[in-house]
Amino acid sequence: MTEKTETKDETVATSRRRFLTGSLAAGGAAMAAGLATAGPAAAQGESVITEIQDWNRYLGDGVVSQPYGVPSRYEANVVRRDVEWLTASRESSVSFTPLHELDGIITPNGLCFERHHAGIAEIEPSQHRLMINGLVDTPLVFTMQDLMRFPRENHVYFLECAANSGMEWRGAQLNGCQYTHGMVHCVVYTGVKLKHLLGEAGVKTNAKWILPEGADSAAMTRSIPLEKALDDCLVAFKMNGEALRPEQGYPVRLVVPGWEGNMWVKWLRRLEVGDQPWHQREETSKYTDLLANGKARRFTWVMDVKSVITSPSPQAPIRHGRGRAVISGLAWSGNGKIKRVDVSIDGGRNWTTARLDGPSLDKALHRFYLDIDWDGSELLLQSRAIDEAGFVQPTKNELRAARGENSIYHNNGIQTWYVKADGTVENVEVS
Amino acid sequence: MTEKTETKDETVATSRRRFLTGSLAAGGAAMAAGLATAGPAAAQGESVITEIQDWNRYLGDGVVSQPYGVPSRYEANVVRRDVEWLTASRESSVSFTPLHELDGIITPNGLCFERHHAGIAEIEPSQHRLMINGLVDTPLVFTMQDLMRFPRENHVYFLECAANSGMEWRGAQLNGCQYTHGMVHCVVYTGVKLKHLLGEAGVKTNAKWILPEGADSAAMTRSIPLEKALDDCLVAFKMNGEALRPEQGYPVRLVVPGWEGNMWVKWLRRLEVGDQPWHQREETSKYTDLLANGKARRFTWVMDVKSVITSPSPQAPIRHGRGRAVISGLAWSGNGKIKRVDVSIDGGRNWTTARLDGPSLDKALHRFYLDIDWDGSELLLQSRAIDEAGFVQPTKNELRAARGENSIYHNNGIQTWYVKADGTVENVEVS
Question: Taking every annotated instance into account, which residue ranges of this chain make up the domain Oxidoreductase molybdopterin-binding (chains A, B) (predicted)?
């Protein structure tokens, strides 16, 4: 198997660096529509290799040398990483998707961020059951095989932890989008609409809520309005075509499109139907948003419109010098599709509409690009997404003005990357 | 890492079993639109487990226990497999995608079938170059970094080997769709349009063809008309969001949407521009279609409209007995999108339109479903795809009548699965 090296990046800068928007020289880079106008990015004499490489001389490994394939050993740094000081233990922690190394809108299963409350439940599927009880006509127990007999659907959805970018509320400056925005992934789910299973049990007329419960030792639970459950929720058993991964709820998880990740209960073993919310631990002590006045916002389910530039970024500096360069990033919204993404190279003074690429799907990641001709001067890179419901991604300061700095969850503020003349990139804030 | 067990399935039945369409009892199963009408697939007393499982008692593994995640150990049989007698060596062989275990339209990178002519070239990307030469104004050499500076695009495309289903021309009866149809996969590619690179070099007015060449020790080459090269071909460096896998051409391959897989040159190191085809080994001695009269069809690039039922199938029998059942399959066409898929349960006498599910994308796999209520009688399952250009998938006998039985390539004939009363499934032909 491929060697895995877990690089220990320095994750927090020792000092906070804030930028005044005015500190950038005007006209730092010229925007180019389509192909950049710089000379060819190729044909430099030094790029020609005259030596014949081994891979051109000798037979390589044959088929099925890896029955389940793995990445090239030259990609060993493309891995999930955690931040050790963040939580008391790795069983109650989070790892982050290496967004800066990825492209397009699909996250490979092996790189989807993890968030556990009691570690990874390693379930034997033949021993797993899903029960529906509470305010139903007929309580039911399903085997995995039973679930496979209902009409199936496939949907591409992003999943974002409510705490994604949470460390940024108070201006922490983590060295890379893997840490600032890596608690999001996007895959194709295959599953059964929850409404079919609830229909089979027969929901009573006074029912208003459901409580999904996990089979891990945290028995994770969240209250979800019945209206959402009957709308687009899926009981999913596959991701990106194959079985769910253990760390993503194998053999079955709930999919709650557009809503915060902790509601997508993994290792799903029970669905209780009730007439009011249950006020469980993970919707009272956690996953509520403490405001400056001491009150907490609760049941803040929808993940707001958001975006981030993934390259260049602190872990993905510009290494090629001046000339044509690709700015690339991701945008998403729990309200539906992304309508537009704007990019600024001068800390938000001027904006240019980016190119959205790939299929635009409801509540999925969207990939955007802006092709520029970089003159080598400093940039303050930002992206700002607008969704089809009309929501515009706010600045971090606008969010702080509205909610104070005690919040952990639901930070969808605009991110700024400071690109230096040597192409290295820092996480900064502009004010 | 997950244990990998390579199951040695029996891949060829010892006797040929042909069915007369009339041999099936009429009305073997009733079609149900939407939910099947049988009783609940759940709530049997025996499905309740009273024991508390370990995964509900103890903490599981923490985050980053696998920096690059792997499947559950209970999925160890979901792997690529080869057929050892098929080729002289594994370096010049093929492995097959386990289609019967997958769902949706995306193939996970670790399960994409392999086809090599000289094994897997394991390339160090910093030592790789792509050259454009021949009838151009300025011959160019690109590093991988150079390629990343051009405007990028993302597209979902199927890739099918021209020899997929090739063993079926003469009626071989392989035990499962992994072997009959598993030389196809479908992923999201990220890359640069070939036309941008050719534009940079400046194609001369008398140019009509290009010759892509691989950096493996087979130096794989195929002639491609310039018109296709300037249309939708991509020079791709990512699949499903991450770097190409070594067995799929890492660090860079050609993508030739809808055309036969051997033209999608892996480990791409050179693109020559010329005014006529080169008549290389792989377009004369191989990848031509020998007809009954001794003449050979050549330059048969487009992969024709095709489909297969992936479940139930010989490797994925019906294990749940009578009642509601899901028939699931894949359809694709090199001509564009799939317009419709019909399913027959009686060997082609009667047809029902299946439900197409998931995004319908140009030259991509399409997933179809038919939800039925199975009465336990024998079925002769078939699927028939129709593409947006109006092409209809033919029967195998129609193909043989037109081309004889000497062909290896381009068999897009209708596949038949014989579902027995006990739910097991065999590969058969109807006549």
Answer: 117-278
Which of A48, A58, A68, A184 should be substituted to probe chain B, the one whose Cβ sees the most B Cβ atoms within 10 Å?
A68
CA distance B70 to B56: 22
The answer to whether A69 and B110 have CB atoms below 8 angstroms apart is yes
Q: What is the dihedral of CA A247, A253, A257, A259, to 10 degrees?
A: -70
pLDDT at residue A310 is higher than 70: yes
- How many angstroms separate the CA of residue A416 from the nearest CA in chain B? 22
Q: Which residues of B touch A120 (CB under 8 A)?
A: 60-62, 65
Looking at this predicted complex, what is its ipTM?
Answer: 0.91
Q: How far apart (Å, rounded) are the C-alpha atoms in residues A343 and A379?
A: 12
Rounded Cα distance between A410 and A393, Å, is: 12
* Cβ atoms A252, A194 nearer than 8 A: no
Measured CA distances, B201 to B115, B197, B232, B267 (Å): 31, 7, 18, 20
Residue type, B99: L
Confidence of residue B67 (pLDDT cuts 50, 70, 90): very high
Residues near B422 by Cβ (< 8 Å), separated by ≥ 6? none
> What is the pLDDT, as a whole number, of residue A170?
87
Contact across the interface for A267 and B142, Cβ inside 8 Å:
no
Contacts of residue B140 in chain A, CB cutoff 8 Å? 40, 42-43
**Strands annotated E in B242-365:** 242-243, 253-255, 268-274, 289-290, 296-297, 306-311, 323-332, 338-344, 352-353, 355-357
| pLDDT tens digits along B331-381 | 999 999 999 999 999 999 999 999 999 899 999 999 999 999 999 999 999
Distance (Å) from the alpha carbon of A173 to chain B's nearest alpha carbon: 22
Which pLDDT belongs to residue A28? 36
Residue range A347-376, pLDDT digits in tens: 999 999 999 998 999 999 999 999 999 999
Walk me through the domains of chain A, giving residue ranges and CATH numbers.
Answer: 18-26+303-430 (2.60.40.650), 114-297 (3.90.420.10)
What sign does the dihedral B390-A358-B234-A373 (CA atoms) show?
positive
Give per-residue pLDDT as tens, B272-311. 999 999 999 889 888 899 999 999 999 999 999 999 999 9
| Pairing mode, strands B425-430 and B18-19 | parallel
Asked if B110's CB is within 8 angstroms of A66's CB, the reply is: yes
pLDDT at A15 over 50: no
Backbone phi, psi, residue A99, to 5°: -55, -30
Whether the Cβ atoms of residue B382 and residue B423 lie closer than 8 Å to each other: no
Q: How far is B55 from chain A (nearest CA, A)?
A: 5
Query: What is the band of B431 on the pLDDT scale with cuts at 50, 70, 90?
Result: confident
CA distance B100 to chain A (A): 10
Nearest to B128 by CA among B110, B142, B108, B138: B142
CB contact under 8 A, A59 and B217: yes
Is pLDDT at A7 greater than 60 in this prediction? no
β-pairing verdict for A18-19 and A425-430 = parallel
Contact B63 A141 (CB under 8 A): no
